What does this fold into?
Amino acid sequence: MGILHLKLSGQNAKSVAQLIANDTARRIMDSVAEESKSESEVAKELSMPLSTVHYNIQKLVEAGLVKSDEYTYSQKGKEVRHYKLASQHVVITTNPLATLPAALTGLGLSVAVAAGIFFFGSTSPAAPPMAARMESDAMMMMAESAPVAVSEPTIWPWILLGAGVMLAGILIATVIQRFRP
It folds into this structure.
């Protein structure tokens, strides 16, 4: 589940706002938030007429708040669609790139952590005496045997990669949402 970005001046923002203000639509979204359900399952759970549930689900699908990506067949062989929440977060903004500063802040923090690990290392100065003794014994055993190159695993490239992937994902999602009808 992702983020639904809407431009404030767009028609879709108005319909999403109206649906969020609608008690029935909100109850339906709550119902399908955890697991996908058919219209009849939602109607039964919420004690609502099936026609009301159908109408509201169609409006929620049109707005992009609910999606249908699976179906089953009834005993009569009729296709029964199942619905679930499409997005956990809805952002209505005047500028689709408004979330970019938050993404850049996250990237900056990731780079700072990676730089700290790279420059200051990940060893702690105050090791417990037992651990220090075990490390000393291991070093002596290694010194007596053939020379072996030992290197600590570096984590900072993975942090940078994760931050880069996060930033790329946000940028791609923003561009897709901007050109979405």
